[in-house]
From TrEMBL:
Originating species: Linum tenue
Claim: Nucleotide-binding is one of the keywords in the record: yes
Pfam families assigned to the protein according to its UniProt record, in alphabetical order: RsgA_GTPase (PF03193)
Ranges annotated as spanning the membrane: none
NCBIfam families, per the entry: ribosome small subunit-dependent GTPase A
Location of the CP-type G domain: 56-214
Alphabetical list of InterPro entries matching this protein: G_CP_dom (IPR030378), NA-bd_OB-fold (IPR012340), P-loop_NTPase (IPR027417), Ribosome_biogen_GTPase_RsgA (IPR004881), RsgA_GTPase_dom (IPR010914)
Domain of life (superkingdom): Eukaryota
Keyword Ribosomal protein: no
Keyword terms: GTP-binding, Nucleotide-binding
Listed name of the protein: Ribosome biogenesis GTPase RsgA
Molecular function in Gene Ontology: GTP binding; GTPase activity
Signal peptide: none
Length: 236
């Protein structure tokens, strides 16, 4: 696992193994974890993860610890926002309890009426959507200031521009930080790569592969209504 040692300027990256006893007690090390490192060799830049600090939050799909913020990204066209799928993504994101931002990309492919219509519709749902276009470089400063100094996981269907957005917001160094491959909960032998990528404006962003049906695993009949901001604001 790659661990960034912070403190004064740019962090040094160490390649670390996990101490056997942590594996034995099944203490999992996730991307985003803050860890205690020992046996450091500063020359070869190697070390050993001795312990894992308590997490402020945990996202399971993809597995990332200490996530401050979720970015739910859809696009205005190619693909068009589909209310059912959008609702599922929002319910899934709300169910984590982590603050979220909803953004719609590819605005340059539609006229302003289409943007206005979705803007009012989403405001009725209780959101303040950010409209952007990676292609036309529009709305990126707004997103970059929202993402600043936070660890954000980007979710959304395939093709909406998640990876494209991350690429434009990334620092010039293009180094990958915290890359860990791990077994997915979905298939025994599927290896998925999750990385925290440093943003040029500060903060980290984790990409996820687009999928169209969030599992809603943590949502129950009782908690469902709390995942709709419009319900919360009306039932007082
Ligand atoms: N017209 C237009 N195309 C865009 C924009 N942003 C991204 N794209 C294009 O949309 C396509 C999909 O973009 P990706 O960034 O790969 O989408 P993704 O969300 O990462 O997709 P998955 O990895 O499959 O989940 C690419 O061809 C991009 O060039 C935009 O603002 N406008
Ligand atoms: Mg992608």
């Amino acid at each position: 696992m790659r661990v960034v040692v912070q403190g004064g300027g740019t962090g040094v990256e160490l390649l670390c193994v996990v101490r056997a006893v942590l594996k034995k007690i099944k203490r999992r090390v996730m991307v985003g974890d803050r860890v205690l490192i020992g046996s450091i060799d500063w020359v070869d830049r190697r070390g050993m993860i001795e312990n894992v600090f308590r997490r402020s939050s945990e996202v399971l799909d993809p597995p990332v610890a200490n996530v401050d913020h979720l970015l739910v990204l859809f696009s205005m066209e190619q693909p068009k926002p589909e209310p059912f799928s959008l609702t599922r993504f929002l319910v899934e994101a709300e169910s984590t309890g982590i603050p979220l931002t909803l953004a719609l990309n590819k605005t340059e492919l539609v006229d302003s009426q289409a943007v206005d219509a979705w803007n009012s519709r989403l405001r009725e749902w209780g959101y303040e959507p950010v409209f952007c276009s990676v292609g036309a470089k529009h709305g990126l400063d707004t997103l970059s200031s929202i993402l600043k100094d936070q660890t954000t996981v980007v979710v959304g269907p395939s093709g909406v521009g998640k990876s494209s957005l991350i690429n434009v917001l990334r620092s010039n160094t293009h180094e990958r930080v915290g890359e860990v491959s791990m077994r997915s909960g979905r298939g025994k032998h599927t290896t998925r790569h999750v990385s925290l990528l440093p943003l040029s404006g500060g903060g980290y962003l984790a990409d996820t592969p687009g999928f169209n049906q969030p599992s809603l695993m943590k949502v129950t009949k009782q908690s469902l209504q709390q995942t709709f901001p419009e319900v919360g604001s009306k039932v007082k």
